[in-house]
Amino acid sequence: MGRTSKLFYVFVGGLPFLYYVSLAGLFGVLVRLIVRFRKSSLDPIARNTLLLISALLLLSSSFAHDKGEAFLQLANFLPFFLLFAFVPVLLRTAIALEQLAMPILLTSIPINLIALGEYLLKNWDYPRSMRRLAIARWVRRAPDQGRAMVMFDQPNALACYLLLVLGLGLGLILYSRFKTASQSDRALLYSATFLNLLGIFCSGSRNGFLVAISQLVVFSLCVKVNRKLLITGLTSLGAIVVAAAVFGIGGRALSVGSWTHDPRVEIWRFAIDLIRDRPLLGWGLGNYKLLYDDLPISKAYPAFHPHNFWLLLGCETGLLVTIALTLLVGWICYRTVRRLMEGAIEPSYRAVLIGYCLAFWSCIAFSLLDVTFYDARINVLNWVILAALYAASSPAIEPPMRTQD
After folding, report:
1. The pLDDT of residue 222
2. Could you give the residue ranges of the DSSP H alpha helices within 264-346?
3. Which residue of 72, 91, 154, 360 is 20 to 30 Å from 374, comparing CA positions?
């Protein structure tokens, strides 16, 4: 499994820059796992729940408002279910989690540096001669004026990805206490991790700003007995708050009105109305945007989804899928947290696993105000992180236990 694991780590880490190449590589890894094991890594409860959800999605698509769109959007779910079902066998140890998280963290360095450059080009009042440069004109013509999005289609997608990386990086910092590393290696780890705060700021995502604060608060609580890490966490927390207060969030000034007059409220109301009309099977995947386009507000505020993952599931797939998927994910998260609280897991494994929990927490929290799984890079990372949590909590895939003194 060594070669398969290494390929898996490389392809996941390369997703931002080698999008289609990495997706093709992950497909090859998945085929290799299926051929070797024939059977998924999931226990009967998880496996049967996932099969039930898949069947309900197919049924919902069969009765969709626009069946063609619904069946097309199944590509955002069914292949990732299959990925989740087989990759836990690659994520059973602390070393495996570190080897997966490290390339993801390192490839975020250029992403954050590009985000800073994009933010400066969009917001900095530089000389006219520089504004005439082709790259400056191209960047300033991009949508979402003032906000960085790098290679992602939308600034919030960039923020969501960087939040996942930030969580993994914080876990690697905790894990580094159990390893012998040079000062340069530690400096690289710290820099790569906290550089994500800069990228999140440049994206201008208020949602990302709040989730990053919550991650740093939990990280600070986890390292309260380590003065150096505690100071690092609190300093980072203070820096992002001060930066937002002084400069706004990615060029967006903070104000009460920007939160209270958010058009998401009207979008949520429309999604709730759709759920009331078709509560069981919904209107079909991808059909929200088709129905929303008929509303007057769609001209002033175009939206492809209701900016809440559970409202999206409810109105597009029905309450049966929404409840089943929520229970499955919640059950995995509950078992993982309970395992962490019991203290039976070997300390180094526990440290890096906390990072995966922080990363998946960002996925859940961000989904309350936005939907980003349409980007396959984010979708892959979400399901891989959940697979790591499953591997840690599943009785069939035991993580290393604390050694007896």
Report:
1. 79
2. 264-277, 288-292, 297-300, 309-317, 319-342
3. 91
Task: For residues 30 and 20, give the distance between their C-alpha atoms in angstroms, rounded to a whole number.
Answer: 15
Q: How many domains does the chain have?
A: 1
Q: CA angle, 310 as apex, 307 and 314 as ends, to 5°?
A: 110
Domain of 238, in residue numbers: 42-261+300-393
Q: What is the pLDDT of residue 246?
A: 57
DSSP output for 349-386:
HHHHHHHHHHHHHHHHHHTTT---TTSHHHHHHHHHHH
- Positions in the chain short of pLDDT 50: 403-405
Residue 106 counted as domain residue: yes
Q: Given this model, what pLDDT does residue 128 score? A: 59
What is residue 404's three-state secondary structure? coil
What phi, psi does 286 have (nearest 5°)? 80, 0
Tell me how far apart the alpha carbons of residues 35 and 45 are, in angstroms, rounded to a whole number: 23
pLDDT of amino acid 405 = 33
pLDDT at 50: 96
User: Closest by alpha carbon to 117, among 148, 156, 138?
Assistant: 148
CA distance 185 to 6: 21
Q: Is 282 inside any structural domain? A: no
- Is 268 a domain residue? no
Q: How far apart are CA 405 and CA 402, in angstroms?
A: 9
**DSSP string of 50-97, one letter each residue:** HHHHHHHHHHHHHT-SSHHHHHHHGGGTHHHHHHHHHGGGG--SHHHH
Q: Look at residue 329 and tell me if it is in a domain.
A: yes
Cα 324 to Cα 328: distance, rounded to the nearest angstrom: 6
Element of type H or E holding 398: none
At 293 the pLDDT is 83
- The single residue listed with the structure tokens 């429309």 is 270
Residue 353 makes CB contacts below 8 A (sequence gap 6+) with: 94, 97, 171, 336, 340, 345, 388, 389, 392, 399
pLDDT at position 182, please? 81
Residues 339 and 345: their CA atoms lie apart, in Å, by 7
What pLDDT, on a 0 to 100 scale, did the predictor assign at position 215?
Answer: 93
Instruction: Name every residue whose Cβ is closer than 8 Å to that of residue 362 and which is 6 or more positions away in sequence.
Output: 160, 163, 164, 166, 167, 211, 212, 215
pLDDT of residue 53: 97
